[in-house]
Amino acid sequence: MSNIEHFPLMLAGSNKRNEHHIEVRSPYDDHLIATVETAELQDVNQALGTAQGLFSDRQQWLSVAERIAILERAVGLMEAEADSLAKGSAEEGGKPLLDSQVEMVRCIDSIRLCADTLRHDVATPVPMALNASSQHRFTIMNKEPIGVVVAVSAFNHPLNLIAHQVGPAIAAGCPVVVKPAENTPLSCFRLVKLFHQAGLPAQWCQVLLPENHDIAEALVTDPRVAFFSFIGSARVGWYLRSKLAPGTRCALEHGGVAPVIMTADADIDNAVPSLAKGGFYHAGQVCVSVQRLYVHRSIAREVAEKLAVAAQKMVVGDPLSDKTEVGPLIREGEVERVAEWVQEAVDAGTEVLCGAKALPNHCYAPTVLFDPPKDSKVSNAEIFGPVVCVYPFDDVDQAIADANSLDVAFQASVYSSNIDNALYISDRLAASAVMINEHTAFRVDWMPFAGLRQSGLGTGGVPYTLEDMQVEKMIVITSKGIR
Fold first, then answer.
1. Minimal CA–CA distance to 200: which of 43, 10, 73, 49?
2. pLDDT per residue over 395-426, tens digit each?
3. Where are the chain's structural domains?
């Protein structure tokens, strides 16, 4: 145990040490990676008190120039540590190393985007002199930080999700308290340490892992919290929103059951590799992962079989190997759940084209199911595993209706060689974004990323989160010298 790294709480100005801790283990082979100290209620109160005291004293606010400089220095430090951060993320989260390296590139770019957005982040003035009562006046519009931010993050992108929550808070000038995912907290601690090394005073960003759910809820629902950023399950997100203190604003990012519609004229050979990546990337543990694939009956069997061939060729295993394409699920219980959902569909008569079996080391074989019942869990709930369902259709409007039938709506996609067909379907899909001839999980960090219905609340993406974490203040100047 003496060689295992230990991560204490990141509480500004505190050397307090708690007896309780959690073990962070590899989701692949369960080896112990590190231990992380957990926070008691008094630690939460201390963190929020520090953050609120900082925000209440405007003399301590960081100028825009200071914030930009900190973000730019952080980018340099992240670039220097990129390889070790990516490897650490793969080890604790199970995302294959190649994909974790891509995530690290995105993480760096997200922080760079925070600085770049801040350079041009101005409020639009309100026009005056439009009538007699507004003569001799003009307005100055300023943007100010909203207040204390509490960010609760998810396990599946332990680097870039933190960048999307903490980066905008730093850019906006908000003190932020971060609760990383219990399964993948180490990447958060490492990134925040780099922010501190870049010149961010420790009290501006604190990290803690609450000892239990009651303490976590106390953190989120405290009246000192001005903005709550949540990435995780819908059940937890909507529950916490219902408990927020009056005046606390929030953004919630949940999941979906992403639909794809393929018309008879789709380019199958180009579509299949894209669909395989979108469905099996990070073992399907992505909130917009390809799950429901509606394909015109004339090509449905061909598409499903070619997708199964692509799935069977994927290398499943050790996330630290540069050959691995699909790693483990985050915990053993998730493997059992995915297996149960697939078995339910099989028992109802679903045809299995590949996979449908658990593998060693908490892995699950990439699975293609053909025409499972609409009332099965794999058809109407987010599976968050490497499973893609293919449904043949005859009438495109019925396929659209089926795609839109759930209480979640996030990103969707259409594959077609006919622009009129592609736009017809895109116009009618219930989604915040529709990709044409691209899988549902496509994303760049400056685009809006918004779950609709029960998939979330508000809009993610660096510029949009930065906007959420600020308020606009209008100053009206009256002077006879103004015409």
1. 73
2. 999 999 999 999 999 999 999 999 999 999 99
3. 5-254+455-474, 259-436
